[in-house]
Design goal:
Elements: E1 22-25, E2 31-33, E3 35-37, E4 41-48, E5 51-58, E6 66-68, H1 69-74, E7 81-86, E8 89-97, E9 100-103, E10 106-109, E11 112-116, H2 119-125, E12 131-133, H3 135-138, E13 143-146, E14 151-154, E15 164-165, E16 174-179, E17 182-189, E18 195-198, E19 212-217, E20 222-234, E21 241-248, E22 259-262, E23 270-274, E24 279-282
Parallel strand pairs: 5-12, 6-11, 17-22, 18-21
Antiparallel strand pairs: 1-10, 2-14, 3-4, 4-5, 4-9, 6-12, 7-8, 8-11, 9-10, 13-14, 13-23, 15-24, 16-17, 16-20, 18-22, 19-20, 20-21, 23-24
């Protein structure tokens, strides 16, 4: 199966743990180059402490930042063990405090991150990653991803079409949309290229009989069986367009929203995340 046909999904929840992280706004560069894996996965270079030229995968669909165990070893970082919930089961992980983390104009001072083995990313997707930057780091400031020019811009950028509000109080970016005239709440995920709906959150009356069964893949392992079909997606005043739909079971987990939408499914060549105004705009 080709990498582009897989959906990457990863939901993380620390069990019984609350951590405050120190942040600092950094003037830094106004933009840095990025590379796109399979046309949608955003890869950029950054640094952690004294280690530079590290490969970061930017993922708005992950709540907490992950670093590979070999990075923690090089920096001699150790921390307490905790449990993560991935789909419907728990996995062991370690929580450590980094000296700092930099990505262009984003500078996180002493962030608490999760240490895990990211070798499965390379094995399953052909993509080496020293860290997966989640929403705890990415929501530090406004930034734009330009898929056409291959750059990520930090701070204010050129105006785009009217912004779509996203829900506040969530670790993710949740917007209101419609699929085949059914209202849904979707999380914007830069680590996904299609639309994924959760089986336990399907709108009442939604027909899924025409879906065929397949399988999705997470950064860690294979997910439960997935049903694949097509539907019409409409967001705000944008005209509806046909997208690939996947229905996946999340076990006993209720994410608090109905599914996820990839940037490519929004037909965006450039997308801007404004956390000050809690809005997203694209063109």
């Amino acid at each position: 199966m080709r990498l582009g046909t897989w959906t990457i999904l990863l939901w993380l929840k620390l069990v019984g743990l609350t951590v405050l992280t120190g942040w600092a706004q950094d003037p830094g560069p106004t933009s840095i180059p990025i590379k796109l894996k399979d046309g949608y996965l955003v890869v950029a270079k950054g640094s952690i402490g004294r280690l530079t030229d590290l490969t970061f995968l930017l993922d708005t669909g992950t709540s907490r930042t992950l670093i590979d165990s070999h990075i923690a070893k090089q920096l001699q970082l150790e921390g307490p063990g905790h449990k993560l919930t991935v789909f419907d089961h728990e996995v062991e992980a370690q929580l450590v405090v980094l000296p700092d983390l930099r990505l262009g104009g984003i500078h996180a001072q002493s962030p608490h991150v999760i240490v895990t083995n990211l070798s499965s990313v390379a094995q399953n997707f052909g993509l080496h990653a020293d860290a997966i930057l989640g929403m705890d780091i990415l929501r530090l400031g406004t930034f734009s991803i330009d898929y056409k020019s291959g750059r990520i811009w930090f701070g204010d950028s050129e105006p785009m079409e009217s912004a779509v509000p996203v829900e506040d109080g969530q670790p993710y970016l949740i917007l209101k949309a419609r699929i085949d005239d059914f209202p849904v709440s979707l999380m914007i995920d830069t680590g996904c290229d299609d639309v994924v709906l959760f089986a336990n959150r399907l709108p009442k009356g939604f027909k899924k009989g025409y879906f065929t069964e397949s399988r999705a893949l997470t950064f860690a392992e294979k997910a439960p069986p997935t049903q694949i079909g097509f539907g019409n997606l409409a967001v705000a005043t944008s005209p509806a367009h046909k997208v690939k739909l996947k229905i996946i079971s999340t076990g006993s987990n209720d994410m608090g929203y109905d599914g996820i939408v990839g940037v490519r499914a929004l037909r965006a060549s450039r997308i801007r995340f404004n956390f000050g105004e809690m809005a997203v705009s694209w063109k």
